[in-house]
Amino acid sequence: MRTREIIRNEADSPTPKVLSTELLNAEEIPVKQTVLERIRASFPWNQARAPLSHSTLKIMNDYLEDNDLKALNIEFQTESPKEDWHRLQANAAINPLFKYSLGSANWFGYLIIKPSIWGKSYYDPYTNTLHINSNNPIEILAELSHAKIIQRQNYPGLYALGSKLPFIAIWAQKQKTNEMLAYAKSKQDWELEKATYRKMYPSMLNGSSIVGMFFGPFYLRPAISVGGVLAGYTVAEWEIAQRESEITQVAYPQKPENPVIKTDSQIERASYIK
C-alpha cells in the first residue's frame, strides 16, 4: 500500500518509478474499468479506454530511449491528484509564478474534468507528467514530442503559456509536428510518418483558422474551422504523395512484423499505478 509519505518522497525525487519487467513485456497493459467506464466503452464510437497495445508500447519505448527523457513521469490511464500536486511542487524547472498560478489552475481543471474518463492523453508541463489515457500511438507521440520541446526550453513555463495562446499556439503546433516528422524520418518509419501527416496537419491548419474564428462573422466560424481541417487533410495527402516518390528512391527498409520491446528501455523509469 502506497502511503502519503511514500508519495511525497517520490515527488521530491526527479526519478520516476519503475515499470515491472512483466508489464513491460506484456502484450498489453490491462485496465481496471469502473461501472461508468464499462457503460461508456459499450458505445462502438467510444473505445478510448482500450489497453495499451504491444506496438504502442514499442513506439513509447523507442522515443523515450532515443530522446533521453529520463525525468519524465508517466501515468497509465489513471488520475492521481495528490501525486500530481506533489510533482507540481517539486518541479524546479518551472518558475514559481507560472507553477502556482497556471499550474494550479491546470491541476484544478484536470481534477474536475478528469481527462482519463474521456480517453484524452496529455502532457502537463507544470507537473512534468505524461498522462496516457488512450491507445492512440500518434496522439501519445505528439504529447511526448511536446514534452521534449518544453524540456529543452530555457523558460519552459513561459513556453507552456504561449503554446496555449491564440496565434502563438499555431507556431507551437508546427514545432510539435516538425519534431514528430523529423523523428519518423530518422527512424525511416514510413507508416509512422504517414500517420503523422494525416493526424497533425488537419489539427495544425485547423488551429490556423483561429484568425477567422476571431475576426470572421459569427455565422461563418464553423465553416472556417471545417475548412481548415479539410485544407489540412488536402495538404497532408499532397505531402504524402511527394514523400512517397522520395522514399521509393532511397528505399526505406521494411519493418519486422513482430518487433521486440527492449527490456532495458527508458520506459522502465515511468510510473505505473495499479
Provide a descriptive summary of the structure in words.
- This protein is mainly alpha-helical and 274 residues long.
- The chain is 59% helix and 5% strand.
- The chain is globular, with a radius of gyration of 19 Å.
- α4 packs parallel to α8.
- It contains 13 helices and five strands.
- The longest helix is centred in the last third of the chain and has 30 residues.
- It folds into two domains: 173 residues, no CATH class; 61 residues.
List the helices and strands and how they pair.
Blueprint: H1 4-12, H2 21-24, E1 28-29, H3 35-41, E2 52-53, H4 54-67, E3 73-76, H5 81-90, H6 96-113, H7 115-118, E4 122-124, E5 129-132, H8 137-151, H9 156-162, H10 168-186, H11 190-208, H12 210-215, H13 221-250
Parallel strand pairs: 3-5
Antiparallel strand pairs: 1-2, 4-5
Helix pairs in contact: 1-5, 4-8, 5-6, 8-10, 10-11, 11-13
The ordered string of helix (H) and strand (E) elements is HHEHEHEHHHEEHHHHHH
Distance separating the two termini: 10 Å
- On the 0 to 100 scale, the average pLDDT is 76
Total domains: 2
Q: Which structural class do you get from the secondary structure elements? A: mainly alpha
The shape, in one word, is: globular
Task: Characterize the biggest β-sheet.
Answer: 3 strands, mixed
Rounded to an integer, what's the Rg over CA atoms?
A: 19 Å
Across the major sheet, the strand order is 3-5-4
Strand % is: 5-15%
How many β-strand runs? 5
Please mark out the parts with pLDDT under 50 across 5 or more consecutive residues, or reply none: 1-20
Percentage of helical residues?
Answer: 55-70%
Q: Can you count the helices?
A: 13
